[in-house]
């Protein structure tokens, strides 16, 4: 009987423990997750990281390393200072009325329209203005684009530099074309030397500006001032003066810029000139800028021929119009690889001698006259006025 009572007591105790375990869990016991019909929140899509573009040399090295034109339809692509040239044509190094200078640069390439213009200008200037022939400086590289040295523009085959030194009456040797220097037209940083800059020079620039396809001509501001004063000596028409724009360093050559040929897709013109002669307030502003620059240079005792060149902006191929990549690789050309050595064509261009003489410095007497006997410290003026 006692054993029966003990068995019933144990059975009752065990049933209570079991019921406690099935019911509400005790402290410290993780509850069983309840089932629910609610769908879990969708996972956010993982963004795939873009692969970085392969590193490339600066565009000036890539385009400066190509010695042949792009075998494509002739086209100026982009703008004068950010573009390239397809289907470039070379100006022969010798013509009946011209000779190409600095052959080591391989920059006698341009659009067919530019080559036609130069051939016509050289012929017309000789026959009608008495100019003995053109010494032609830089046009563009075979495929245009940025250059290792010198210009920011000249990238689309529509720009040309023409020396203000008359062509000799003989064919220059290759050595002479590398070593001969164009003559400055300046007596000092502010004034043209009228014994060198003659009416024949005025006629040549007027002739170049007279063609409808010419958008602009750049000359040193002192030359522009001289043209304004002497325009009447070569004719009554002054409309051509509006195309002639003052700009830095164009004292031994003038720079011709053609407008984009009609209907040429992807070629970007500058804003057209206003038609004003540019002989008034704009030129007065330039006079002030030139004086500041001349004083600053003289005070720093900078010798123009020993001054270190400024760093060129590191423009990449991706900064140029998209079509310039096709121009660069056309004809099976393999672009210059990163850290690859520059080929000979680029080294020769980079090492070539400057085309012209340096701008003369102010004498100490001129400096003191401009300063009124004192010494004024001033910073270099803005070198990029509207052109």
Describe the structure.
The protein has helices at 2-22, 59-64, 112-129, 174-179, 199-209, 221-230, 281-300, 323-329, 344-351, 364-371, and strands at residues 75-79, 82-86, 89-90, 94-95, 98-100, 109-110, 134-136, 159-163, 186-188, 191-192, 214-219, 244-246, 253-258. Helix 6 links the parallel strand 11 and strand 12. It contains ten helices and 13 strands. It is 30% helix and 12% strand. It has a domain at 59-278 and 342-357: Muramoyl-pentapeptide Carboxypeptidase, domain 2, CATH 3.30.1380.
Principal-axis shape equals: globular
Report, as a whole number of angstroms, the end-to-end distance. 123 Å
Query: Which consecutive residue ranges, at least 5 long each, have pLDDT under 50?
Result: 1-34, 376-386
- Helix/strand class: alpha+beta
The strand line-up of the biggest sheet is 8-13-11-12
- SSE pattern, N- to C-terminal: HHEEEEEEHEEHEEHEHEEHHHH
Instruction: Evaluate the radius of gyration.
Output: 36 Å
Number of helices: 10
CATH architecture label name of the domain at 59-278 and 342-357: 2-Layer Sandwich
Number of strands: 13
CATH topology of the domain at 59-278 and 342-357: Muramoyl-pentapeptide Carboxypeptidase, domain 2
Biggest beta sheet summary: 4 strands, mixed
What is the percent of helical residues? 25-40%
Beta-strand share of residues: 5-15%
CATH class division of the domain at 59-278 and 342-357: Alpha Beta
Chain oligomer state: single chain
The whole-number mean of residue pLDDT values reads: 86
């Amino acid at each position: 009987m006692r054993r029966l009572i003990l068995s019933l007591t144990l059975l009752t105790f065990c049933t209570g423990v079991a019921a406690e375990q099935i019911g509400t869990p005790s402290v410290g016991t993780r509850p069983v997750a309840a089932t629910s019909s609610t769908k879990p929140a969708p996972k956010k899509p993982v963004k795939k990281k873009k692969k970085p573009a392969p590193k490339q040399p600066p565009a000036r090295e890539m385009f400066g390393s190509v010695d042949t034109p792009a075998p494509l339809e002739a086209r100026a692509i982009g703008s004068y200072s950010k573009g390239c040239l397809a289907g470039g044509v070379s100006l022969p190094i010798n013509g009946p009325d011209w000779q190409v200078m600095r052959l080591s640069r391989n920059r006698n390439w341009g659009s067919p329209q530019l080559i036609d213009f130069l051939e016509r200008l050289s012929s017309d200037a000789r026959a009608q203005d008495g100019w003995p022939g053109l010494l032609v400086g830089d046009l563009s590289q075979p495929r245009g684009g940025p250059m290792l040295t010198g210009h920011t523009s000249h990238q689309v085959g529509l720009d040309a530099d023409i020396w203000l030194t008359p062509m000799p009456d003989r064919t220059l040797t290759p050595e002479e074309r590398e070593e001969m220097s164009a003559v400055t037209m300046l007596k000092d940083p502010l004034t043209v030397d009228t014994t060198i800059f003659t009416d024949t020079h005025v006629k040549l620039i007027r002739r170049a500006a007279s063609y409808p396809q010419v958008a602009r001509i750049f000359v040193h501001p002192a030359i522009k001032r001289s043209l304004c004063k002497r325009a009447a000596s070569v004719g009554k028409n002054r409309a051509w003066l509006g195309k002639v724009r003052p700009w830095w360093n164009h004292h031994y050559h003038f720079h011709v810029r053609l407008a984009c040929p009609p209907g040429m897709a992807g070629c970007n013109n500058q804003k057209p000139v206003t038609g004003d002669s540019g002989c008034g307030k704009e030129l007065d502003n330039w006079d002030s800028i030139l004086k500041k620059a001349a004083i600053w240079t003289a005070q720093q005792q900078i010798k123009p021929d020993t001054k270190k060149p400024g760093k060129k902006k590191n423009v990449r191929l991706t900064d140029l119009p998209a079509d310039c990549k096709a121009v660069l690789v056309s004809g099976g050309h393999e672009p210059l690889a990163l850290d690859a050595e520059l080929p000979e064509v680029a080294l020769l261009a980079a090492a070539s001698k400057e085309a012209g003489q340096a701008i003369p410095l102010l004498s100490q007497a001129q400096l003191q006259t401009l300063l009124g006997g004192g010494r004024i410290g001033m910073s270099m003026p803005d070198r990029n006025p509207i052109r």
